[in-house]
Amino acid sequence: MWGKLLGTIFGFLFGRWLGAILGFYLGHLFDKSLRQDFDKVGGFQGFMKGEDLHERQALFFSSCFSVMGHIAKSNGRVSEIHIQAASAFMSEMGLQGEERKEAQHAFTAGKSSDFSIKEAVTDFKEAFARRYDLRQLFLEIQIQMAFCDGHVSDAEKALLKQVSKYLGFAETHFLFLLKRYQAEFEFRRSQASGRSQHQHQQQGGRQPAPQDNGLNRAKALAVLGLSEGANEREIKKAYRKLMSQHHPDKLVSQGLPKHMMEVAKRKSQDIQSAYEYLKKS
């Protein structure tokens, strides 16, 4: 704003209306460049003390596990599968000792009957209002918890829809993320199954059977949020956008706890695998 204003004023002083137009344009370029540099350092967060960043990371950590616990309890009781999924998630993050106890405490707090999902998610949303990618990753983690047994129940879906709304996302975007994670889950499973079959056939001295390219291509496209018929340009555009949204270093600089870098890394790896598959198919 200030670049355009000052550019217009000085341009008018030196070149009347033609100078004002040129000054406005140059000021616009200056504002745009300044805003990009500002965002690269994390907006106002770039000027905050380290304690503020740690507070955001602590909030992300506690909110994430408490909401996970609440979603796990949405069917009336927490199943053994949900407990195992939460435990595996903690192990994936490398949580041990006091940190693991803190995660378990937050998960237990989320199961409490007096836990306010609206208050917890609204507080999170206010703290990360300018961090769209972090809010989206938070929702994706909750979808992952609900999907740990291979499907999302009606109760879980209704609760996830509420969480999405409190985070500021439209219902259409929530359904898009839900569909994309399901495709990601199925694509990952089919890739693992394909590798297992390939190893088994090699050990038996047989040639591996050809993969079902039509089925896997559809899944790979869905991982990128695309449907059948997407062209090469659309695939590359979707891939770059998703990789940018899930870049671990960028997310950590914005408030993602370092322990959760593994979550972002795995998302990036799934996106990368789907893209590489599509390039070869």
UniProtKB/TrEMBL annotation:
Residue intervals on the Cytoplasmic side: 29-281
Source domain of life: Bacteria
InterPro entries, sorted: DjlA (IPR023749), DjlA_DnaK_co-chaperone (IPR050817), DjlA_N (IPR007791), DnaJ_domain (IPR001623), J_dom_sf (IPR036869), TerB-like (IPR029024)
Topological relation to the membrane, as annotated: Single-pass type III membrane protein
Start and end residues of each stretch annotated as Disordered: 189-214
Compartments in which it is found: Cell inner membrane
Ranges annotated as biased composition (Low complexity): 190-211
Keyword entries, A-Z: Cell inner membrane, Cell membrane, Chaperone, Membrane, Transmembrane, Transmembrane helix
Domain J stretches: 219-281
Pfam family, one: TerB
SUPFAM superfamilies tied to this protein: Chaperone J-domain (SSF46565), TerB-like (SSF158682)
GO cellular component: plasma membrane
MF terms in GO: protein-folding chaperone binding
Periplasmic-facing ranges: 1-4
Subunit structure: Homodimer.
Domain text: The transmembrane domain is a dimerization domain.
HAMAP family xref list: DjlA
Task performed by this protein: Regulatory DnaK co-chaperone. Direct interaction between DnaK and DjlA is needed for the induction of the wcaABCDE operon, involved in the synthesis of a colanic acid polysaccharide capsule, possibly through activation of the RcsB/RcsC phosphotransfer signaling pathway. The colanic acid capsule may help the bacterium survive conditions outside the host.
Name assigned to this protein: Co-chaperone protein DjlA
Originating species: Pseudoalteromonas maricaloris
Gene (UniProt): djlA
